[in-house]
Structures are given as structure tokens and as C-alpha cells.
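chain below, 678 aa
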Amino acid sequence: MSDKFRLMMDSSAKTRDEIRQELQRMIELKAHPAPEIPAEPEIPAEPEIPPMPEIPPMPEIPPITEIPPAQEQPLDDITNAVRKKVQERINSIVREAMEDSGNSYGERIPPREPRDNIDYLNGENTLHPDEIAYPPSEPEYDADGEIRGKITEMRKLSQRFYNGYMLRQCAEETLVKQGEYMKDVTDDFGRNCFCGIERPVYGALSTDQLRTYFTWRTLARKGVYNEVDKPYVILYCYELLNRIGVLSAVDAYNRLSDVWENCHGFCPALDMLMPRWLKDFRAYNQVGDDVQVCPAENTGNGSVSGNDEDILARRYSGKLEYLMKRSSYNLRGSIFYSDSSAKMLEGALEAVLTALDGYFSEKGITMFELICGKLRKDHSWSPFLGAYVDLDRMDGFHALRISQMEQYSLKRGQPCLEVFDPAPYRNFIGWVLKGTESVLRKRTGFRYGLSLNITPVLEDMMNRDKLFSAVNAPEFSGIVPKAAEKWCDEHGIFPPKKQKKRASYNYDEAPEAAAPASRAPVEIDVSKLAKIRQEADETTRRLIVDEPETLPQEDITERVDEIMQDDFEEQTSGFADDYSEYNIVSELPQDKTEKFSELGDGWKEFAGSLSADDIALLGALLNGSADDYCRSRGVMPETQYDRINAAAMEFTGDILIENGAVIEDYVSETEKIITLAK
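prediction:
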């Protein structure tokens, strides 16, 4: 009965009446079963995969009311059995569908049509019919396939490190690992592929680009450097910097030198990168002193001028023009400076610099540091900047002196680069030039003297204990005058009063006496004298005007009496009080020279030529109230400054006021003048 019910469920859907009739018939068969007929043996049929049947909706079985009450219990059993079988069938169908979804069935693909294997270099077929019919007994060697396969294996190599947050790829170690894997590869690729990568690595290049690189590298190792794109040359430099494919550090350095010498013509980037790479390579590897230094190291940023090298070598001849450019004192604008005096200044300056060099050498200070600059740490430096280099493959960092202008050293246990920083002491250079000029002014009998002020020099060296103590020493101020005077004695330059007692000396050859000038002949045209006299009379006539009629004598006498009767003191009362704020000095005594006798030559005469108002203006300049002072007097500040500067130029040879303030070198002399004038 269950088989029949299953067949009923497998068939198409039935109506409610058909199901009721079928159930009634099944109940009757159960009550009166028919005799079983022996079944004939069934011939097994070929199994076939039945299509997935659609699950019919669960029919709602209404209650059967026509069955007698005595048969209600067997009907419930049948209903439960039907429901159970339906549920099992549904579960089996769902289970089979889930299992079938995980299985894959093979698809029959038709074979492809054979195509010609064409060589794209010559356009011919690489296989001929005879070769296909009768293949060789041993396969030929496939070089292209082997190189491409090795490139594929190389791409799988990578190096990763953990930085505390995530795993990241290390470009330097990856390049080294891949480079070591491919260091012995040689190639003969027939194409030259373009490459425009700024910082090339193996993984960033395509297969054809890598084959182009390996072909170029094969020839470069033989000394043949063909013109290629910049990334191929840079990648080869990366290999040499990491000492890949070389015998030693010396071999790598020599190969880098050859690359620069042969490739910088078509790869200008090497002129910017190679000088620093070569120096860094020598600092991190034991190259030795026998290796020939590459000329590229001299094209970097460490080069200096010839004057700096001369001063470094203590050669001070002909350095006047060089020092004038670095000085705070404008020697060229001095009234003493001329073509003839420049030659004397040149010779005396050499003697002065030599004397200062000996003094500072005893203190552990170089003139190069004072005049040119010094070596300072380059904070922007990092080893092998712009290249992928694994420092663990280097021999180790060591101190290296590239030149006097550049060196590698250890600072607090860390490698650093020290380069030349052009930072001269401008006030010191100006003080030296001014001291030399002052001595020559006295020795040549120049009318105006020159005084020195070492205060700005001390202020510049305030934070340098060694320099400050050397410059502040009592014996330092006499070095420049003594050296300049000694040079003048050796060359016969003496003051005019001593010139008569010694042989005549001329710094240059004495000029020959000038020939008497011949007078030009003068001719007078007498015919034009009458016309000139007539024009002069006409001009005289026009200039003569009639005098106005004079006042009577009585009116003049009355006017004079009125003026004399006015109280002059009453009219001018309080006028002098307006200047009480700036009235520092009332009147100078008649003998001004004696009052300023403590001042030096030139300054004594200059102070004696100043009026009380001029000295009061100087005091206002030092106090910063010069504009208010001039405004109260109703005068222009520039006019007063020009008048005082003219007097200073006459007696001292230099101006005193510049840009509305007293020049810093002459502040101390100005204060002395104001103090002595009180």
C-alpha cells in the first residue's frame, strides 16, 4: 500500500475526490486483502538520472465525515503515515539537491585549431612540416623559457618585517635577495624596452624590461656601456652599492667609477647622485688608501674657491679683495683707499694675517675658521640618499676625511657628515682691515686718522669661549699695529718727519718730473670790443633803479625811541625754557682743545669744532630723541647730520652719523665727547 501511495504522490496532483476514492479503496483492500501473485523477475533497466521533481504543495486533507465511527482509528494511522512519508520525501529531495550543487560535471571542449608558431623577429615559421612529422629524439634547449621561468621565480622572493603595527615589505632586503638570485643571469635580448621608473627595483619592471636590463648588464660587465634609459643604469648602481655580483668592496668601487665615467654623458643624473654615493660607500666599507679616487667625488657640493684653499694652506698673499667682500667695514669707500694705497694695504695685510695666524695657532684656533667658515653637521644627510642599500652588507662605518671641507665622523655614537659652512666673522675681518689702514695713514702722513673699536668683535664671539678669551686678551689688540708697523719699517715707509733722516723710499717707482706746460697763443678780435662794450652799458643801465624817497629824520628818530623803550627781557621770557630738556651743555670754554685732550688724534680737533647745540644733538642721538630735539629747534635733522659729518670727515676721515644714528664703531668716542663737554 505504501508503494501505491508513493506512486500516487509521484504522479501529477490529484483532486480531493480522487484522493478520497483512493483512500477508500486502500481501506477496503486492507480489510479484504487479495491473494498475492508471484511476481516475475524484473530485468534491471539502465539507471538514468531522473530530473529533479517539483515539490508539490502539501495538500490539505479535509476530515472524512462519511466513514463510519468504527473505522476512525485506522484512518488516523494512515494520515500520519502519509504525512511522514511526504516529509521524508521532501527531505530526501532537498538533500540530493544540496549534494548535486557541490559536484561539477566535465564539459566537453572541442579541440583548438592548430596555429602557426611564428618568429616575430624574422616573420618565419619556427616549425616546418618535416619537423612536426619527425621530431628530434632530444628536445632543444629553450633559453628564453628558462630566463622567463627564473624571472617568475624571482618575483616570488620577498622580504617582510614587522614594525610593531603591521607586516611591511622591506625594499632594500628584497632587492638584495632578488639580486643575489639573478646575479649570474646573462641574456641576449633582441629588443630595447623603454623604462621611465624613477627608483627602479626588480619587481617594478616587466619581464621584457628585465631582459633588456640583463642584456645591458651582460655587456657592461665586459666593459661595453651602450646607451640605455636611466633606470637600467641606476639599477646596476644599486647592485654595485649592495656589493652584488662583485668580488670585494674595492671591485665594487672601481665598477661604480667606470659606470660614472662611461655613462654620465647620456645619463646626467649620475653627476648629482654618484659623488655622494661614492663617498658614502668609502665611509661604510674598507676600500683602503691604495684605491684611485673617482673624479666624480670632486664634482659634488663640497668644492670651495681657490681663496679658501689658500687660507686653509696659510697662504695670505693677494687676499685684500677677498677680505673686502667679507668685511663689515667698507674699505673701498674710505677716502684713504686708492690704487696706490691698495698696493700698500695688500702687502701690509699679508704681514698682519701671518701674525694673527701665529697667535691663534697657539690658542688652538685656525684663521680659516675666522675668515672663511667651519665644518658643521649636515642634518639633511642620510647614507646613500636616493638608493636602496642594505647597510648590513657593508663592512661598517668609520671616520673618513674626504677633504679639508668635508669629513665623516661619529657624533654621540651616530654617523654624521660634516660639510663646510661659509660663515665668516665679518666684524673681525673689518677690524683687521681698519687696523691695517690706520697704521698706513699714520706712516704715509695722511691728514685724517682712524680709531679702532673692538667691541663688535667681542659681541660676535660672546658664545665662543675659546675665541672670546683669545680676542679679549690684553696682548691681542697690539698684534695688528705691530705687524703693520714692522712691515712699514721693512719697506721704508715712515712718517714725514722721519723721512728726511732716511733714504727716500717710494712704494712705486717715483714718477718723472712733469714737463713745463706750453702756453696756448691768445688772439684778440678788436672789431668785437665795441659791441661787447655797448652790451655791457645796456646791462648796467637796466640794473640801475631809482632810490625811494627817504623818510624824514624826525620819523626815524621817533621809531628808534619806540624800539629802545620796549622791554626786551619781557618779550623773550620763557623762550630759553623750551630748550631745557635738551640743554645738556650750556657753553663750551674758549680753550676747547685742552678740554678734549684725552681724546685721540683727530677726535680732539673734531670735538673742539662742535658747538653746544651739536653736542646736545649727539646726546639726543644716543638717547633716541634726536627727531624731537630737532623739531623743538625748528631745524631739519638731515641738515644737522650733514654738518656734523662734514666736520668728522675733515678731522677723523670718516663720517659719524649714518641712517639717523651714531655709527656703532664711534659710540664710545661720542660718549667721551659728551662726558668731557659737561
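DSSP finds 28 helices and eight strands in the chain. The two ends are 146 Å apart (CA to CA).
thats it, cya
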